[in-house]
Amino acid sequence: MTELFFYIFSFISILTALLVVFSKNPIHSVLYLIVTFFTIAGQYILMNAQFLAIVHLIVYAGAVMVLFLFVLMLLNLNENAEPKKDLILKIVSIISSGLLFLTLTAALKDAETSQPSIATNENLGLVKNLGNVLFKEYVVPFELSSILFLSSMVGAVMLGKKEQTTNN
Amino acid sequence: MKLIIFITISAIIVLFSSIFNARKAALPLTLMALLIGLGMVFQYNCQCDGSFYRSIVDEATYRNMISFTRFSALFSGVMLVASILIITLSANSIKPIFDHYRSDIYGLMLFSLCGAFILVSYQHLVMLFLGIEILSIPLYILAGSRKNELASNEAAFKYFLMGSFTTGVLLFGIALIYGATGSFDLNALMTYCHVGQISTMFKVGMIMVLAGMSFKIGLVPFHFWSPDVYSGSPSVVTAFMATVVKTSVFGATYILFSKVFGVNSGWTDTLAVIAAATMFVGNLTATQQSGFKRMMAYSSIAHAGYLLIAMVSPDLASGKAVILYMAAYSLATIGAFAVMMAVRRCTGSDDINNFNGLGKSNPVLATALTIAMMSLAGIPLTAGFISKYYLFTIGWSGYSTLIILAIINSAISVYYYFKPVIAMWFKPSTSDIEIKTDTSLNIVLWVCVIGIIAVGVYPDLILAFAD
To answer: What distances in angstroms separate CA B271 from CA A121, B173, B222, B402, B410, one per listed residue?
Structure first.
């Protein structure tokens, strides 16, 4: 059963990842990317990593994608607004990316294959275990991070507040 | 830890004072909180006996996250005194149109101070990262707190973008160190560094952490932000950045590198080169500046260079030298900023030509600035001289070439520190604007001047706390 899900998720994620690259409309790209993220989150769940899956959805599919969409809508990218790429630019980009590919292969050739890490505890990725660590061992930094959030909120309000010019 | 909790709660109270329309209470409340904090630090310092690095609090209570030592107590004391002076200075210097932000500004400063306390007492790399962030995020906002001024916006934006980028580098370095050692705990890292081989991964991590910290201190080649940010930010914030922020991040770097990694783990050569470059770039560029704030920005870069001498020295007393130097530097810098703010308020700019003739029109201000400048340059009988002397003697056991370079640099620095002094005493006044001061500014000036001379004549005033 797990294997079946793995293949389904993998197929969808590879397909949508390709569609992200090949679709002409940037908005479609972003939407396909969201699907990719969801399938990857599915993979995490198959590996019993609940927390990672949820955080992946919240951070990537939620926050980052909304940011991408906002930027795209603000920039108002159309197909004809795309800058024309001339031949020299194409050749330069092919050469530079080819060089990067060469370097990476050369570097990876000598790399040792690491031991596949096998989780000692199968339930390591559960939210409950994470909570235990977070609220016992890391409770001091967890509490102190509230100062960070409070100060950034105060800052956002202070910078976002409209200037009062009449009184004061 | 109690200190951090106390300052956080007082910051929240100060923030709330604007809701209840008690904005005038923000300043006394902040000052009171800082004075009580200073009392707490003093009490901590009395509690500890023996080793410089023995924790006062029970480390296990806080899961080995924080260790408040005599070192941290002294650093916190220096930062608290600097904050008290800066906040007193701000009493009349916040422009009327920004007055309704007063409580927000003080609240953010107190939050930033909490981050500074974490930075001098961390025992875990996660706390180091949190400390850096808690220190920086309020500062990004404070740098841009004059919303209508383009320079302030530019300062905030530059500081924010570059700062968040280098925090990323720092975090990457921490991750690599974790990868090499398998621990975030400073004690475990210390064992790793002193026993056995240090892996390449660890070294790369160390250099990346050093890059992240260098940005916050403003070491060459990560100093490019500081002149723009220092001159663009409101003067009170600039004084805060030049003293409190520098002191705390320097303390953090000192703990991590000199104490935990130790001088034998191969970073000292890198740091010695950075120190030499920082001194020369800071001092030589400062000679070219015509604006007082920009000059002070480069001067603070140069002073960070001198301080690195203590970091690379294997002498165990180098921590004391750092504290003495930081105290002397903070007093002189705040004194200089106080005079600059008085001049700027009355003439509208901080150009050195505006100091012309100040010796005749307002001799008190001129004398105070002269003493501050003499201390920064390291003329005998001031705190600057004795702290530099102490620093160089301790540094001699490490890189002696660096000391010779530092002495050459001190000579260069006399040139630009005396520019405003010459302008004040020997040049005729160009305009007939009268430079006025107010009570709070005068108090700060007197405290700074008396402090500089007292520490200069009798350095045990500060060193006594460390023994």
So the answer is: 43, 16, 13, 11, 19
Q: Does B115 touch chain A (CB under 8 A)?
A: yes
Whether residues A63 and A136 fall in one domain: no
Residue at A21 is within a domain: yes
| Distance from C-alpha of A56 to C-alpha of A40, rounded to nearest angstrom | 8
Look at A154 and B112 and tell me if their CB atoms are within 8 Å. no
On whether any CB of chain A is under 8 Å from the CB of B57, the answer is: no
* Residue A130 within a domain: yes
Q: Walk along chain B (467 residues) in steps of 10 and give the mean pLDDT of each run.
A: 91 87 82 92 78 74 85 92 93 73 90 94 93 94 88 92 94 94 91 87 92 92 92 92 94 92 85 93 92 92 93 85 93 93 85 86 90 92 92 87 93 92 86 79 92 90 79
CB pairs under 8 A between A and B: 75
Query: What's the number of CA atoms in the CB half-sphere (13 Å) around residue B102?
Result: 27
Domain total of chain A: 2
- 3-class DSSP assignment, residue B185: strand
Chain B CB contacts of A144 under 8 Å are 4, 114, 118, 127, 130, 134
Q: Please, which residues have CB within 8 angstroms of residue B385's CB and are 6 or more apart in sequence?
A: B375, B378, B379, B456
Q: Which of A112, A145, A147 should we substitute to test contact with B (largest number of B Cβ atoms within 10 Å)? A: A147
Of A152, A154, A165, the CB nearest to B107: A154
B96 chain-A contacts, CB cut-off 8 A: 168
A→B interface, C-beta within 8 Å: 136-141, 144-145, 147-148, 150-152, 154-155, 157-159, 163-165, 168
Of the candidates A17, A44, A79, which is a domain's last residue? A79
- Does residue A148 lie in a domain region? yes
pLDDT digits (tens, 9 = 90+) for A81-100: 566 678 888 899 999 999 99
Domain span at residue A50 reads: 1-79
Gap between the Cα atoms of B364 and B358, Å rounded: 9
Last residue of a domain, one of A54, A79, A104: A79
| Contact between B4 and A144 using a beta-carbon 8 Å cutoff | yes
> Would residue A24 count as lying in a domain?
yes
Q: ipTM for the complex?
A: 0.87
Q: What angle do CA B144, B148, B151 make, to 5 degrees?
A: 55
- CA-to-CA distance for B198 and B314, rounded, in angstroms? 19
Q: Which of A141, A152, A154 sits opposite B65 (nearest CB)?
A: A141
Per the CB < 8 A criterion, the answer to whether B335 and B371 are in contact is yes
Rounded to a whole number, what is the distance in Å from the CA of B77 to chain A's nearest CA? 21
Residue B49 CB contacts under 8 Å (≥ 6 apart), including other chains:
none
CATH number of residue A2's parent domain = 1.20.120.1200
* Residues B435 and B346: beta-carbon distance below 8 Å: yes
| Closest-CA distance of chain A to residue B12, Å | 9
Q: Nearest by CB to A164, which of B12, B100, B144?
A: B100
Strand partners, B122: B66
